[in-house]
From TrEMBL:
Record lineage: Bacteria, Pseudomonadati, Pseudomonadota, Alphaproteobacteria, Sphingomonadales
Subcellular location: Membrane
Transmembrane feature ranges: 28-46, 61-86, 129-156, 189-214
Keyword list, A-Z: Membrane, Transmembrane, Transmembrane helix
Name of the featured protein: CysZ protein
Membrane topology classification: Multi-pass membrane protein
Length: 229
């Protein structure tokens, strides 16, 4: 856990790296495009439904409802979508960090086939949906405590994020599927919790996935004693 402040500091310092900026731009554009597409599809569906319900076109009402739903959905689901998108660009972030700080390790990394990346991303999304569904069951009785549900979802997503971010790096370097995970549960949870908190803050949530991937790269490699910085 003592490496977390250093990992985050190094990750923030590299945000100006052109390679990181390119990945950040792609991640943001694709993520926003997904939400925009979902909002447009919802607006079309609502407009058709409202026509049948009230007997006349109601594009304005449908647009308002679609915008509200997308904004709420974006706040609730941004983490899931952003990380799923980042799965396809994470290797670029990791390679940029490794090239700058751990050049000796670059040649030992394996290139993950896109099918494996797709499978990893799908498993991560399913794991996230199931865990958040279970968290919802726990959070509902705590609704009137105000802060209770927020703590439950933060804890669950902190655990999930720590696992996902570690795997983005570790899967490129592990020797076999039987290798022991490099980060302890406590380190994964604390690091994931910090990134989960960043994802809840407007504007910072756009940077959080990149900071998470870069920071996880430092955590995994420094865990094995690679300290070229």
């Amino acid at each position: 856990m003592k490496n977390i402040p250093t990992a985050l500091t190094l990750a923030l310092a590299q945000l100006t790296d052109p390679r990181i900026i390119r990945v950040l731009s792609k991640t943001i554009l694709v993520t926003l495009a997904i939400f925009a597409g979902a909002g447009f599809a919802l607006w079309l569906a609502l407009d058709r439904y409202l026509v049948g319900w009230i007997g006349e076109s109601s594009e304005e009402l449908g647009a308002i409802v679609a915008i509200v739903v997308v904004l709420l959905g974006g706040w609730l689901l941004f983490r899931i979508v952003a990380l799923a998108v980042l799965q396809f660009f994470a290797d670029k972030v990791i390679m940029a960090v490794e090239a700058r700080h751990y050049p000796d390790l670059v040649q030992h990394a394996r290139s993950i086939p896109w099918r494996e990346e797709l499978a990893n991303s799908a498993r991560g999304v399913v794991r996230t949906l199931l865990a958040n569904g279970a968290a919802l069951i726990v959070a509902i009785p705590l609704f009137f405590t105000a802060i209770g549900p927020a703590i439950v979802f933060w804890a669950v997503n902190g655990w999930l994020l720590g696992r996902e971010l570690q795997d983005m790096v570790w899967l490129r370097h592990r020797a076999s599927a039987q290798d022991t995970q490099p980060l302890s549960l406590a380190t994964r949870f604390l690091f994931g919790g910090i990134i989960a908190a960043l994802l809840a803050v407007p504007f910072l949530n756009l940077l959080a996935p990149i900071i998470g991937a870069a920071g996880a790269t430092h955590l995994v490699h420094r865990r094995h004693g690679n300290r070229n910085v």
